Amino acid sequence: MSQRLDRVNELMKRELSTVLERGYRFEGVVLTVHEVVTAPDLRQASVWVGILGRVHDEAALIEKLNKEKGSIQRELYKRVKLKHSPQLLFRLDKSIERAVSLINTLDNLPPPLPDEEQPSSEPA
Fold first, then answer.
1. Which end of the chain lies in a sparser environment, N or C, as judged by fewer CB atoms within 10 Å?
2. Which stretches in the chain have pLDDT values below 50?
3. Pair type for strands 87-92 and 44-53
């Protein structure tokens, strides 16, 4: 990926986070923008969001974001000036959910058994 595209992705990620934080409230959840992947021609951008909190239907929340993308894009493009304004597509990033599951699994492992024989540090 080019350095320019990396900068665009990072800028859009930061500004989208600000737009969503200030202008949109979702009952009992916090949205985090994990990654923005913009097409090289700047026509489309996939926005990977994580959901923190209790939500009954994650897919419905992502669908709601995609329905609201017109107003979200308007707010974003007031803040970010690009030659082309990419069409946003919101997607669910489940990495936090997987990380929490992994941590819980590790926490539930039994402690290691003590060694019966301790290896001596002296050569035989």
1. C
2. none
3. parallel
